[in-house]
């Protein structure tokens, strides 16, 4: 081990010890973020951004503003490291909405002991103001012990994630340069731990059907557009879910891990079908104007998902071929994206999974997400990205909460990760 490695190890150990000794400071930061209402819509995160600025100013870190919408600020800053490697931490400030009348706890932050757990309640506690607080606290720890982390730590704290808006990460991604990234989305549920190393591709379809009108008492004189469209949608879904996906060899390990992770949650067969075949959800179906008339028009919208590594365009070609059998049904709008992934044995996946496993003392799966998110934006920009945070199964739920134990373990993992990432990069 070189002198530089010894110094980096000592710096990491000191930062980890500081994290362990300042759990209440971490909890206070999480509570301050929760107290800053940032529901999206409308998505005003100025108060939450001010909490971040104050926390980092107090740690002696200069924060840059990278904002395109004054109500939705984005904050960028760095902690210089010992090596010419950069690890990016990404988190978002906005939350989904809530109806306070449905909550039994304060949605703007409440700490309570329940069933022996020291809990922090609030909208965003687990998605993702709690994990964001842990990321920020890891940066504060290195500053507090006056040690440089083994690699440079870059931070992108963004807005507008929950609605997929353009004012957040998409507006700053071109300014980001990192060798790996962790997004602090909660990736653990029902006591099972994971790092998401992939997302799925999507095809969003709008189908319009035309019929011929007639009186509802004489339906045989018309052509019912609802019936026409339902037949096409049923045929399409059946053909898609019977179509095995051509998964590249390098994604097979991710698929196997994903099936293993989700099998206890959704059942073995459902987990296999989710990743080995396309899924097709009928999200919208509209037709007809009145009960006593044969409808002349109907519209449906479907959400088709395919595992990373699959050429989405080949699945779309199959969809078009299937619809050729339904001459009254037309594909009037389509948008699509390809799934993205990082290798399960690549530096960022290995470092995050191994660091988390060492802290929690349990297996950490390396799996695909069932949907997609900001990971896709970062991976498509050339930054190898994973998601990881400990939390609870209350994402977007009423009485959302995290535990102080989860916050502390997250902060420890984020503080340890720079050293593990540096070693994994050397071994790659």
Task: Output the keywords.
428 residues; alpha/beta; Aminopeptidase; Alpha-Beta Plaits; 2 domains; six-stranded mixed β-sheet; four-stranded antiparallel β-sheet; M20 family metallopeptidase; Peptidase_M20A; hydrolase activity; metal-binding
Topology:
Elements (H helix, E strand, L loop, with lengths): L2 H19 L1 H13 L10 H13 L5 E2 L9 E5 L3 E10 L17 E5 L2 E5 L7 H16 L6 E8 L10 H4 L7 E4 L9 E6 L2 E10 L14 H17 L7 H18 L1 H9 L2 E9 L9 E10 L5 H12 L5 E9 L9 H14 L3 E5 L5 H7 L4 E3 L13 E3 H24 L1
Parallel strand pairs: 3-6, 3-7, 7-14, 8-13
Antiparallel strand pairs: 1-2, 2-6, 4-5, 5-15, 9-11, 9-12, 10-11
Helix pairs in contact: 1-4, 1-12, 2-3, 2-4, 4-12, 6-9, 7-8, 10-12
């Amino acid at each position: 081990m070189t002198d530089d490695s010894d110094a980096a190890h000592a710096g990491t150990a000191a930062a980890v010890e500081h994290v362990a000794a300042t759990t209440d400071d971490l909890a206070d930061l999480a509570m301050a973020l929760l107290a800053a209402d940032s529901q999206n819509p409308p998505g005003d995160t100025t108060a939450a951004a001010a909490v971040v600025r104050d926390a980092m100013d107090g740690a002696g870190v200069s924060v840059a503003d990278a904002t395109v919408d004054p109500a939705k600020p984005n904050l960028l800053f760095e902690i210089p490291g010992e090596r010419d490697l950069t690890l990016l931490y990404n988190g978002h400030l906005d939350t989904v909405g809530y109806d306070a009348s449905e909550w039994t706890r304060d949605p703007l932050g409440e700490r309570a002991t329940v069933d022996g757990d020291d809990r922090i309640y609030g909208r965003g506690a687990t998605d993702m103001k709690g994990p964001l607080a842990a990321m920020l606290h890891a940066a504060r720890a290195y500053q507090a012990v006056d040690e440089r982390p083994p690699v440079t730590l870059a931070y992108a704290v963004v807005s507008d994630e929950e609605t997929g808006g353009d004012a957040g990460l998409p507006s700053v991604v071109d300014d980001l340069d990192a060798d790996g990234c962790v997004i602090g989305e909660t990736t653990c549920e029902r006591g099972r731990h994971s790092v998401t190393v992939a997302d799925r591709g999507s095809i969003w379809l709008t189908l319009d059907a035309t019929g011929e009108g007639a009186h509802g008492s004489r339906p045989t004189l018309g052509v019912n557009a609802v019936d026409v469209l339902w037949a096409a949608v049923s045929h399409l879904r059946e053909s898609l879910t019977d179509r095995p996906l051509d998964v590249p060899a390098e994604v097979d390990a991710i698929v196997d891990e994903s099936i293993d992770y989700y099998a206890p949650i959704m059942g073995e067969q459902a987990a296999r079908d989710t990743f080995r075949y396309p899924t097709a959800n009928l999200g919208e179906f509209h037709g007809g104007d009145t009960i006593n008339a044969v409808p002349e028009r109907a519209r449906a919208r479907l959400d088709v998902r395919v595992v990373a590594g699959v050429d989405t365009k080949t699945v779309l070609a199959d969809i078009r071929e299937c619809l050729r059998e339904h001459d009254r049904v037309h594909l009037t709008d389509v948008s699509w994206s390809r799934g993205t992934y990082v290798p399960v044995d690549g530096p960022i996946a290995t470092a995050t999974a191994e660091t988390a496993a060492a802290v929690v003392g349990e297996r950490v799966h390396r799996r695909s997400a069932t949907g997609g998110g900001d990971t896709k934006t970062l991976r498509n920009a050339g930054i190898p990205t994973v998601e990881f945070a400990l939390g609870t199964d209350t994402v977007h739920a009423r009485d959302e909460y995290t535990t102080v134990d989860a916050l502390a373990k997250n902060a420890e993992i984020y503080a340890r990760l720079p050293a593990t990432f540096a070693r994994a990069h050397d071994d790659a």
